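We were asked to recover a plausible sequence for a given structure. The inputs and outputs are reproduced exactly as logged, with field labels preserved.

PROBLEM: sequence recovery
POSITIONS: 191
GIVEN STRUCTURE:
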């Protein structure tokens, strides 16, 4: 029976260590790697809330919002993460730091927001959404919206600087082709 306890403790420890690795990636400004680690850790948490001892109450075992991950792999055996409050705070804080720093395509932001909402649906069953103890889905979705706006602004600035570079090139007089590009982008027609 002792080897089982070691395996159980290892599963909880792996989730905690994943957050430590993510924290190291954030410190090294490796936000893409941090995002990947957070996604895997959050998948594990959403799939195994009870087994990891992360829920405040124990509802009936049939969670209608639980992802169908268990069809692919069995749930973890029961374990305990010692400081539940610190765990949730660390997970959410890491998510907010990564979301504030990463640059994704608009489609990637959409997919990430869908995943966040899916995790929140699974965690909501346990009362672990938008509270101090649990997943801060409202804050995370706001961070996704800000990230999406940030990338749109960057794309618009890049487009504007490209248009300005085309118009402003040469001897001070823009060639006719440049006016056509500018007019198409700004006014929707060519002259």
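RECOVERED SEQUENCE:
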């Amino acid at each position: 029976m002792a080897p089982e306890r070691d395996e159980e403790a290892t599963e909880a420890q792996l989730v905690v260590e994943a957050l430590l690795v993510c924290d190291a990636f954030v410190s090294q400004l490796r936000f893409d790697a941090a995002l990947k680690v957070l996604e895997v850790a959050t998948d594990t948490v959403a799939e195994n809330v009870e087994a990891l001892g992360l829920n405040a109450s124990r509802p009936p075992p049939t969670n209608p919002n639980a992802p169908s991950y268990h069809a692919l792999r069995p749930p973890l055996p029961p374990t305990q993460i010692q400081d539940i409050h610190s765990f949730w705070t660390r997970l959410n804080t890491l998510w907010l730091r990564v979301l504030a720093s990463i640059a994704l395509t608009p489609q990637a932001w959409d997919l990430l927001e869908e995943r966040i909402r899916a995790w929140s649906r699974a965690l909501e069953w346990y009362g672990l959404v938008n509270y101090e103890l649990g997943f801060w889905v409202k804050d995370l979705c706001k961070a996704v919206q800000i990230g999406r706006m940030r990338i749109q602004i960057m794309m618009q600035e890049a487009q504007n600087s490209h248009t300005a570079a085309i118009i402003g090139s040469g001897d001070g007089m823009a060639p006719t082709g440049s006016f056509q590009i500018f007019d198409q982008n700004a006014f929707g027609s060519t002259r």
